[in-house]
C-alpha cells in the first residue's frame, strides 16, 4: 500500500512538473513568435512607408494643384457673373435665370444668399430646390465667412481661400443630397459679393469636373497599395484640421471631409475613435490598435505634410488575433503532454515534435512575409564585403534582373564587376561602403533615361562566427513618378491654354525682378470685346483666339515676362525704364491685338485696354502696383477702350 501511495505521489509530481515545464515552454515560444512577427511586420511597414510616401506625395501635389487652380478660376467666373447681374435686383431672379447663368459659366449648381434684417443669412434662390430658405446660422465658420463678406467685402478666417469680395471654402458636400442618397459627393462652394445689389452669388462646382485626373490617379495608386500589399486592408489620406474640428465637444455643423482620398471611408475612421492628440507632432510612422468588423487591426499613421496624414488599416498577426484560443490550446496541450510523459517517458519526444512543428510554422510565416516584401521592389539583391573591401553579390532577383546576371541562392557568388556596369558600380560604391558601416542609405540612379531608387539596409551578423558583413538592397523603377513630378512642376508655373507663365509664376518672379532692377513697369492688359466672342461663338473659338493673341504678345514683348492671370487678362513685366519706350510698346501692343483674328474661317476683332504702373514711383510692393495698374486699365476703358493709361488715376 505504501509503495503504491509513493508511486502515485511520484506520478502526480511528475505530472505537475511536466505540466509546468510544458506550459512554460509553450508560452515562451508563443510570445517569442508573436514578438518576432510584430517586429518583422513593423520593420516592413516602416521600410514600405518611405517609398509609399514619395509616390503618394507626388500624386497628392498634382491633385492639390488642380484644386488651387479651380479656386482661382472660380473667382474670375463669379466676377464676370457679378458684372452680368449688377443691375438685377434679388426679386427679379428666378429659376430660369439661374439655370441660364449656371450653363453659361459651366457651374454644377448656382444659388443666391441674402442677409435679412434679423442679421441672419439665408439661401434665397437656388437651382437646388431643397436648399431654398435654408438658414446658415448653424453652419459654423461658413456662416462667419458670409457675415464678413456682407460686412467687410473680405474674409479673415483661417479656412478656404479669399480675396476682395470673394471667398471659397474647403471642398464639402450638399447636405440635402447626402440625406437623400446617403452618399457624400464633394463640391467646391465659392461666393462673390454683388456690391450693387448686396447679395452673395454662390457658384458650386462638382469635384469630378476639376480634380478627376489628379484624384483618380491618387485613388488608383492608394487602391494598388491596398490590393498588392497583403498587410494593408484599407488606406486613405486624412485632413488633420478637419478631424480636430470634428472632435471638438461643442463643434458647430460642418460638412468638411475627413478622408480625402483612398478606400478608407470617413465613417470607418470615425468609428475608430482616434483622439486628435495621437496625430499631433507626427514625425514618423505611428501605430495604434483598433477593431474593425470584430477583428483586431493596427492603424499606421504616416505624416504627409503638416495638414495631411496617410492612414493605413493594417492587419494584425494571426497569433495576436487568436490570443485567447492559443492560450487555451497551450494549457490543454501542456496537460496532455504531462499525462503522456507520466505514463511513458519516451513519449516526451511528442513535445519536441510539436515544438519543431511550431518552429516550422513560424519560419513559414516569416518566409511568406519575405515573399510579400520581395513582391514590392522591382529588384532585390544581397551584397557582402571581403576583408580587402571588395564587394560581391550572393543573391539577386526581380523583374529587372537579366538572365546572364542572375545569382540564385544555390549559385557561386559573383563579383560586382561580373554583374553590374561600371556606371552603376561608380554610383553604388560610396553608398555601399556607408551601408557596410551600419548606415541605412537611399539614393537615386539614372540610366538610359530611366530613374531608379536604391535602398541599402545593413544586416546584423554574429561577429563571433566570422561571417562576412552583408547589405540587403532594394531597387524600384521610379521613372513615372519623376516624369510626373516634372510635368506637375511645369503645370504649376504655366498656363495650360496659352503656354504663358501663370499667376503663381508671377507671384514667385516679382520679388526677384524687384531685387535685380531699380526700375521696371507692370502692364495690366484686359481684352475689349472678348466676352462677346465667347457668347457668340463659344469657348472653343474663344480659346483659339486667346492662343493667337498670346502669340502676338510674345512677338512684341520678346525681352519681357508675359503672364496670363485670368480669362482674358494678362500681365507684362518690362525692365524698360524710359517713358517713351513704355508708350511705344503699349501702342504696338494695341495695334497688334486690334488686327483681325481668323479662326475656322471666322474673322474676329477684339481690342485691348492697358493700365501701366511704374516701379518705384507708383508703388513699392506687388499688391500696390497691381492695384495701380488695374485702376489705370479701367481708366483706359473709360476713355474709350483700345488705349493705355500710365500711372495713378487722379
TrEMBL record:
Alphabetic keyword roster: Membrane, Transmembrane, Transmembrane helix
Signal sequence coordinates: none
Pfam families, A to Z: GGDEF (PF00990)
Matching CDD domains: GGDEF
Family matches, as NCBIfam families: GGDEF
Membrane-spanning intervals of the chain: 12-33, 324-345
Residue ranges of every copy of the GGDEF domain listed in the record: 518-649
Top-rank lineage group of the source organism: Bacteria
PROSITE patterns in the cross-refs: GGDEF (PS50887)
Protein name: GGDEF domain-containing protein
Amino acid at each position: 500500500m505504501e509503495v503504491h501511495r509513493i508511486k502515485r505521489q511520484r506520478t502526480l509530481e511528475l505530472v505537475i512538473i511536466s505540466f509546468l515545464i510544458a506550459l512554460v515552454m509553450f508560452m515562451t515560444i508563443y510570445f517569442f513568435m508573436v514578438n518576432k512577427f510584430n517586429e518583422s511586420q513593423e520593420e516592413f511597414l516602416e521600410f514600405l512607408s518611405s517609398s509609399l510616401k514619395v509616390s503618394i506625395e507626388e500624386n497628392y501635389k498634382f491633385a492639390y494643384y488642380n484644386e488651387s487652380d479651380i479656386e482661382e478660376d472660380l473667382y474670375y467666373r463669379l466676377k464676370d457673373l457679378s458684372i452680368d447681374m449688377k443691375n438685377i435686383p434679388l426679386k427679379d431672379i428666378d429659376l430660369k435665370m439661374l439655370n441660364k447663368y449656371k450653363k453659361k459659366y459651366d457651374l454644377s449648381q448656382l444659388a443666391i444668399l441674402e442677409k435679412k434684417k434679423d442679421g441672419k443669412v439665408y439661401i434665397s434662390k437656388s437651382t437646388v430646390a431643397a436648399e431654398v430658405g435654408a438658414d446658415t446660422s448653424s453652419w459654423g465658420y461658413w456662416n462667419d465667412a458670409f457675415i464678413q463678406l456682407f460686412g467687410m467685402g473680405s474674409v479673415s478666417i483661417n479656412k478656404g481661400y479669399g480675396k476682395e469680395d470673394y471667398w471659397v471654402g474647403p471642398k464639402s458636400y450638399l447636405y440635402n443630397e447626402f440625406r437623400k442618397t446617403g452618399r457624400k459627393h464633394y463640391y467646391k462652394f465659392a461666393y462673390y459679393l454683388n456690391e450693387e445689389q448686396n447679395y452673395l452669388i454662390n457658384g458650386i462646382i462638382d469635384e469630378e469636373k476639376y480634380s478627376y485626373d489628379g484624384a483618380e490617379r491618387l485613388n488608383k495608386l492608394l487602391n494598388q497599395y491596398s490590393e498588392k500589399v497583403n498587410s494593408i486592408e484599407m488606406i486613405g489620406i486624412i485632413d488633420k484640421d478637419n478631424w480636430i474640428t470634428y472632435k471638438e465637444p461643442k463643434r458647430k455643423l460642418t460638412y468638411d471631409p475627413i478622408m480625402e482620398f483612398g478606400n478608407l471611408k470617413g465613417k470607418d475612421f470615425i468609428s475608430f475613435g482616434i483622439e486628435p492628440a495621437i496625430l499631433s507632432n507626427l514625425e514618423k510612422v505611428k501605430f495604434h490598435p483598433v477593431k474593425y468588423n470584430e477583428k483586431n487591426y493596427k492603424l499606421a499613421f504616416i505624416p504627409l505634410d503638416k495638414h495631411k496624414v496617410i492612414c493605413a488599416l493594417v492587419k494584425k498577426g494571426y497569433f495576436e488575433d487568436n490570443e485567447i484560443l492559443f492560450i487555451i490550446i497551450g494549457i490543454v496541450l501542456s496537460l496532455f503532454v504531462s499525462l503522456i510523459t507520466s505514463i511513458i517517458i519516451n513519449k516526451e519526444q511528442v513535445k519536441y515534435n510539436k515544438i519543431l512543428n511550431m518552429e516550422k510554422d513560424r519560419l513559414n510565416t516569416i518566409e511568406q512575409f519575405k515573399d510579400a516584401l520581395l513582391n514590392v521592389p522591382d529588384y532585390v539583391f544581397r551584397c557582402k564585403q571581403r576583408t580587402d573591401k571588395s564587394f560581391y553579390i550572393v543573391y539577386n532577383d526581380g523583374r529587372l534582373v537579366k538572365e546572364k546576371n542572375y545569382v540564385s541562392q544555390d549559385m557561386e557568388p559573383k563579383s560586382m564587376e561580373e554583374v553590374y556596369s561600371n556606371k552603376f558600380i561608380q554610383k553604388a560604391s560610396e553608398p555601399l561602403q556607408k551601408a557596410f558601416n551600419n548606415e541605412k542609405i537611399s539614393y537615386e540612379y539614372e540610366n538610359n533615361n530611366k530613374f531608379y531608387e536604391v535602398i541599402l539596409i545593413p544586416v546584423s551578423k554574429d561577429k563571433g562566427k566570422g561571417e562576412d558583413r552583408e547589405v540587403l538592397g532594394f531597387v524600384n523603377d521610379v521613372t513615372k513618378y519623376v516624369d510626373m513630378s516634372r510635368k506637375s512642376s511645369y503645370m504649376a508655373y504655366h498656363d495650360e491654354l496659352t503656354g504663358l507663365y501663370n499667376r503663381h509664376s508671377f507671384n514667385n518672379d516679382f520679388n526677384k525682378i524687384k531685387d535685380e532692377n531699380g526700375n521696371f513697369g507692370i502692364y495690366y492688359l484686359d481684352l475689349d470685346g472678348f466676352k462677346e466672342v465667347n457668347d457668340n461663338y463659344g469657348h472653343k473659338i474663344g480659346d483659339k483666339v486667346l492662343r493667337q493673341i498670346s502669340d502676338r504678345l510674345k512677338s512684341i514683348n520678346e525681352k519681357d515676362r508675359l503672364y496670363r492671370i485670368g480669362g482674358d487678362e494678362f500681365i507684362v513685366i518690362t525692365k524698360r525704364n524710359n517713358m517713351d519706350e513704355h508708350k511705344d510698346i503699349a501702342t504696338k501692343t494695341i495695334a497688334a491685338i486690334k488686327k483681325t483674328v481668323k479662326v475656322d474661317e471666322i474673322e474676329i476683332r477684339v481690342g485691348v485696354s492697358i493700365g501701366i504702373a511704374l516701379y518705384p514711383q507708383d508703388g513699392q510692393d506687388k499688391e500696390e502696383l497691381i492695384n495701380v495698374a488695374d485702376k489705370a486699365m479701367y481708366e483706359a476703358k473709360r476713355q474709350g477702350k483700345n488705349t493705355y493709361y500710365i500711372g495713378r488715376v487722379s
